[in-house]
Design brief:
- Belongs to the short-chain dehydrogenases/reductases (SDR) family.
- This is Polyprenol dehydrogenase.
- It holds the Pfam family adh_short.
- GO terms for molecular function: oxidoreductase activity.
- This protein is α/β, with parallel strands linked by helices.
- The chain has helices at residues 8-31, 55-66, 78-92, 107-119, 147-170, 205-229, 254-267, 271-274, 276-283, 310-324; strands at 46-50, 70-75, 97-101, 126-129, 177-182, 234-240, 294-296, 299-301.
- It has an 8-stranded mixed sheet with strand order 3-2-1-4-5-6-7-8, sandwiched between helices.
- α6 (205-229) links the parallel β5 and β6.
- The radius of gyration is 21 Å and the shape is globular.
Length: 334
């Protein structure tokens, strides 16, 4: 018999008691948070959510559907997408959810998705740029882009630009169409290397991910500037969901995985909680007509100083247009 055998029951009681205490602590911490806001119904409106089959995107889709929106999930897995549609329809008792294939790592797939969407001849009131990858090993998209920059940023850059005309036609003076882009607090430590956007000189998964998230903030600010200059009834905002317990962490170092497994239930937001600021940006009357904002915990806050560099915004936009093969309409804007 092991010398520790007599201690096993005692240790079991100790850890069980500790788990109960921590569970109660978590409940008390959550009770300090204000109740979830009640948003107005969105009947007759249409939304597209990239990566809406799981994680933050799934809960964003579910909430928008509950509000009466017709929501289109744009994703790169037919099986996961159709399963998400089935579950959301069961949980919300609405049939206004559908899936369309869109691989954001493929410029061809993005263009095909937009063609399919346009064939529906419907409006578009909300575009949620949510999908993303994090800390993946070095590899390229089918178009030759570093995968973080290509999927997280360039994919959404092209998708947004191809859908802009529909968004502009759908927005009105009293109800602007909305573009909501999901970034991350990681952008605060990101550096944009305009001479090496593909991270070919020195690849770091952390650096590449942070750069892609900074690029999304710069893109949002430049986009809002152009929308305002053109008098469009469309707003563009960027959100930080916080630290959320999702599948994005599957590529992190094993020590981080162990730490996450031990602490996620206490320190991390659930995917549903992580979706709250995205939903707020998509439908809240409080920010009607307001664009160019960085939102965290449903409040406007300050992003990284470098994100406000208008020259950097312009240069990134111009370079991005070249990369995805679209005309740079911004060259005629102030």
């Amino acid at each position: 018999m092991s010398l520790l055998s007599p201690l096993v029951p005692l240790l079991s009681v100790y850890y069980a008691g500790l788990a109960v205490i921590l569970h109660q602590l978590r409940r008390r911490l959550r009770s300090r948070c204000p109740p979830a806001p009640v948003f107005p119904t969105q009947n007759g409106k249409v939304a597209i959510v990239t990566g809406g089959a799981k994680g933050i995107g799934y809960h964003t889709v579910k909430h928008l559907a509950r509000l009466g929106m017709h929501v289109i999930i744009a994703g790169n897995s037919e099986r996961e997408g159709q399963e998400a549609v089935r579950k959301i329809k069961e949980e919300t008792l609405t049939g206004k959810v559908e899936f369309l294939y869109c691989d954001l790592a493929s410029m061809k797939s993005i263009r095909q998705f937009v063609q399919q969407f346009r064939a529906k001849n419907c409006t578009l009131h909300v575009l949620v740029n949510n999908a993303g990858v994090m800390l993946v090993p070095e590899r390229q998209t089918e178009d030759g882009f570093e995968v973080h920059f290509g999927l997280n940023y360039l994919g959404h850059f092209l998708l947004t630009n191809l859908l802009l005309d529909t968004l502009k036609q759908s927005g009105t003076h009293s109800h602007s169409a909305r573009i909501v882009t999901v970034s991350s607090a990681t952008h605060y430590v990101g550096k944009l290397h305009l001479d090496d956007l593909q991270s070919r000189c020195s690849y770091s998964p952390h650096g590449a991910y942070a750069q892609s998230k900074l690029a999304l903030v710069l893109f949002t600010y430049r986009l809002q500037h152009l929308l305002t200059a053109n008098g469009s009834h469309v707003t563009a905002n960027v959100v930080d969901p916080g630290v959320v317990n999702t599948e994005l962490y599957k590529h992190v170092f094993w020590v981080v995985k162990v730490f996450k497994w031990m602490t996620a239930w206490l320190l991390f937001k659930t995917p549903e909680e992580g979706a709250s600021t995205t939903i707020y940006a998509a439908v809240s009357p409080e920010i009607e007509g307001a664009g160019g904002c960085y939102l965290y915990n449903e409040e406007r806050t300050k992003s990284a100083d470098v994100a406000y560099d208008e020259e950097l915004q312009r240069r990134l936009w111009t370079e991005s247009c070249k990369m995805v093969g679209i005309s740079d309409e911004s060259s005629r804007a102030p």
